[in-house]
Amino acid sequence: AQSVTQLGSHVSVSEGALVLLRCNYSSSVPPYLFWYVQYPNQGLQLLLKYTTGATLVKGINGFEAEFKKSETSFHLTKPSAHMSDAAEYFCAVMNYGGSQGNLIFGKGTKLSVKP
Amino acid sequence: DSGVTQTPKHLITATGQRVTLRCSPRSGDLSVYWYQQSLDQGLQFLIQYYNGEERAKGNILERFSAQQFPDLHSELNLSSLELGDSALYFCASSGGGGSFYGYTFGSGTRLTVV
Q1: Tens digit of pLDDT for each residue in B17-33?
Q2: From residue B13, how far is each of A22, A30, A94, B113 by CA, in Å?
Q3: Nearest to residue A22, comparing CAs of A61, A70, A82, A65?
Q4: CA nearest A66: which of A83, A46, A91?
């Protein structure tokens, strides 16, 4: 069965600092992995996805993530945080059927950006 | 605007009541998914429909039911409401039969049970 674990429910960075949000996955098959962002009082928006091919995936708003099979990780990074990046971020893995639905989400990491 | 429309945006109702949440998927998407988001449980998958048929079921209570209509819009019915049902309910849609390209989420319905 597929699952994701997000390390750290809250991360705080200063504006201009590196953003690193951690996600580890478990999958019995080659995974499809996703990062979503949720701004306050809004729905989830797709940031980026990894399916096959290049392991470094670039997304919207300057975010990128690297798929590392040996480490079963898919960490999200951004070189320089902006105040507008403050939001909650969810890592997800595609589940192949079963009762958990097609996407299994982590518990989320809330990112705060200090001026 | 994501293209997935959920109504209403906010709903306040009393315990024991029944409510219906509505979702119109993005144009061309055949799959609709319902999720419940609460502070303690996170994002919980409830149910998926594909082109009118139930495809997958998650932790959906027996008091909850859903359906997808021929025009592909979906409704989530919540009955005998309890305080613990207060949450954000999201609908998402995807093309084809799966989530290969990820979901498109609506902005949610915030349900408050008092």
Answers
A1: 999 999 999 998 999 99
A2: 38, 44, 35, 5
A3: A65
A4: A91
User: What average pLDDT does this structure show over A40-59?
Assistant: 90
Residue A72: closest CA among A43, A102, A29 = A29
Chain B partners of A103 at a C-beta cutoff of 8 Å?
Answer: 33, 45, 99, 102-103
Report the distance separating Cα B52 and Cα A44, nearest Å: 24
Is residue B109 within 8 Å of B4, Cβ to Cβ?
no
Contact B58 A46 (CB under 8 A): no
Mutation test of the interface with chain B: which of A35, A44, A91, A105, choosing the one with the most B Cβ atoms within 10 A?
A44
Q: Is there a contact between B103 and A100 if contact means CB atoms under 8 Å apart? A: no
The answer to whether the beta carbons of residues A42 and A86 sit under 8 Å apart is: no
